[in-house]
Amino acid sequence: MSLGSSSTGYRRSTAKGVTMVKVGTRTGLPLVPCPKCGSEVLELRASDLSKIPGQIFFKCRRHENWDPGSCPFYMLADKYEKFLRSKTFGADSPMNMEETTPELAEQVGRLQNELDHLQEEVEVLRHGLAAMNGDVQALKNGLGSVDVKCSKMMNISHLGLGCQLVVVLFVVVGVVVQPVK
């Protein structure tokens, strides 16, 4: 399975002072330590080329499909949410699902909209940059032809200067030769 990028956020809770809880930004679900080994749990999106294209899943950072000795923790989003709900989190816990998920899901939705808007802006800027690169290339090509023309003019001016020197020599030699006659 091909993996997408992991994205996490943090949620502030005032239930026990200020507590930071890592949450998945796509689902808003808390990312609790792996129940198998205690390592970090990641929220990922499957690539479009995988067996489950576009689906969100959770896995232990130490989980590797190709390594049977790695941590086996892996769950699709719906099963992970059920797993979290089956755990007993107290009402004052920062991981109380009824309190955390709707608020975070709304925040994730706003952030996703902002991300979509920024991606559109990046695409517009990318097209503008491509157009400017074309203009720069045209200017470079134009400057190249100007350089060739300048080079030809310099050659011609050198030739002209050479002709003037020859004429001056003929005049001087002619002046010098005439009195001798």
UniProtKB/TrEMBL annotation:
Keywords: Coiled coil, Membrane, Transmembrane, Transmembrane helix. The chain crosses the membrane at residues 159-180. Residues 101-128 form a coiled coil. This is Zinc finger GRF-type domain-containing protein.
